[in-house]
Amino acid sequence: MATNMFKTNLIEKVLFAIIYFIFSTTNTTKAFDTSSCASQPDLTIIPIYGKCSPFKPTPGPWADTIINMASKDPARLDYLASFVARRKPGSSAPTASGQVFNIGGYVVRARLGTPGQLMFMVLDTSTDEAWVPCTCCTGCLSTSTPFSPTASATYGGSITCSATKCYQGRGAQTCPAGPGSTSACIFNQSYGGVMFSATLVHDSISLARETISKYSFGCVNSVSGGSIPAQGLLGLGRGPLSLFSQSLSLYSGVFSYCLPSFRSYYFSGSLKLGLSGQPRRIQTTPLLRNPRRPSLYYVNLTGVSVGRVRVPLPREFLAFNPNTGSGTIIDSGTVITRFVQPVYNAIRDEFRRQVKGPFSSLGAFDTCFEKSYERLAPIMKLHFEGLDLKLPFENSLIHSSSGSLACLAMAAAPNNVNSVLNVIANLQQQNLRILFDTVNNKVGIARELCN
Ligand SMILES: *[C@@H]1O[C@H](CO)[C@@H](O)[C@H](O)[C@H]1NC(C)=O
Ligand SMILES: *[C@@H]1O[C@H](CO)[C@@H](O)[C@H](O)[C@H]1NC(C)=O
């Protein structure tokens, strides 16, 4: 009797919880309660169109948002390919001008200067430098919240063009008055086809409770050919100007993130900086260093399985080659995983063999099929040296907004001269903790529901 009562009670509680959940979520949709968002000094990773992001979306069906965002991947891949060191100045021509370039799907909160000026900066693991629009900026979005150097007591002014730090940045301009000059360090960059010019300055930056003093970052003075992220970008690459290179004593070159599901409009993931709080036991794969592309996190992808089949892939398309830049990187700014064409074709063909057609295309996805055949969809595995990553279905399939189609959520890299790079992207990283140890050259991956 007592057990029965307990059971009834439990069922009631569960029902109540479900109803309460439905009620509270519908309620939040209406009230758009962001009060819990901005107050804490934490390191949540916020989907750029999520509830706690200041970049208000037209939420719409999330599948449409992803398809729209994925359509900008080719410009992203071009950007990644442009990293070959020692390009001739001015040779990085804009590739897709005139658009708002919503690169990167996630933002984190940082405070620049003293008192801290709150910025929602795009997280970018393939860029070293951080940059923010400054008050003087011409061509910046009118909606951007610029950083005001004059309002900061710790603003350290610009770095000179002859300082080592200056030419560690991409697109650094030569000193107008020759070496030894004390003019400001200016760098011009193309970010996804949008040109901007910034002065390298220094001031403190606070992430959660920690402050890095004299952090060097770009103060954007002018933008042309489109828009850059409205509150700047935080570079988490591994080159000399990145956050980790500038904070070695604080974070020991270690960080991890867990990206929330794209669907989780109400939720956030987390960024963890430094050794504390990192998973102790985690499978790892070596991090490879390409001196010609020092910002990028290269890993050794050795194969891909579709269901039980290990897809035969031509070795040369997976092999790491520092000279050509070929190989595989993990990136937080590309929306869907891109394989070079021959690799993608082989994976896709095997996938199609195991699922029932006919197949249609939707945006960047060329393997969409009737959702009722989804039960036939094989599990995909990415094999890295020393680490096998089994992709949960939410990381390998995407549904159309109408819900009638399911698509293989990967694509081929754009077919141009630079396509030698395989990119493991956001959608495939959802709800995984990805740990980067830049000192011991390791990447760890573990399943974590961080929604
Ligand atoms: C860098 O950008 C500034 C501002 O747009 C421009 O005046 C300058 O000519 C650019 N330099 C180069 C080498 O493109
Ligand atoms: C990648 O892993 C394979 C298999 O373990 C190995 O033969 C190869 O040397 C590795 N490549 C690099 C660049 O470490």
Layout of helices and strands, plus pairs?
Blueprint lengths: L1 H30 L12 E4 L14 H9 L2 H9 L17 E2 L5 E7 L4 E8 L6 E8 L25 H5 L17 E6 L2 E14 L2 E15 L1 E2 L5 E3 L12 H4 L2 E5 L10 E5 L9 E6 L9 E2 L1 E6 L2 E2 L16 E4 L6 E3 L1 H14 L5 E3 L2 E6 L9 E5 L2 E4 L6 E3 L5 E4 L1 E3 L8 E4 L7 E6 L4 E6 L4
The structure holds 2-acetamido-2-deoxy-beta-D-glucopyranose (2 copies).
Structure, briefly:
The chain is of the alpha+beta class and 451 residues long. The chain has helices spanning 2-31, 62-70, 73-81, 164-168, 248-251, 341-354, and strands at residues 44-47, 99-100, 106-112, 117-124, 131-138, 186-191, 194-207, 210-224, 226-227, 233-235, 254-258, 269-273, 283-288, 298-299, 301-306, 309-310, 327-330, 337-339, 360-362, 365-370, 380-384, 387-390, 397-399, 405-408, 410-412, 421-424, 432-437, 442-447.
Taken from the alpha-carbon principal axes, the silhouette is globular
Tell me the strand percentage band.
25-35%
**End-to-end span in angstroms?**
39 Å
Number of strand elements: 28
The quaternary structure here is single chain
Give the distinct bound molecules: 2-acetamido-2-deoxy-beta-D-glucopyranose
Fourth CATH level, the homologous superfamily of the largest domain? Acid Proteases
Q: Roughly what percent helix?
A: 10-25%
The CATH class assignment of the largest domain is Mainly Beta
Biggest sheet character: 16 strands, mixed
Mean pLDDT: 82
Rg from alpha-carbon coordinates: 23 Å
Helix and strand composition category: alpha+beta
Total helical elements: 6
Stretches where pLDDT falls below 50 for ≥5 residues?
Answer: 1-32, 84-102
CATH fold-level label of the largest domain: Cathepsin D, subunit A, domain 1
Structural domain count: 2
Please name the CATH architecture of the largest domain. Answer: Beta Barrel
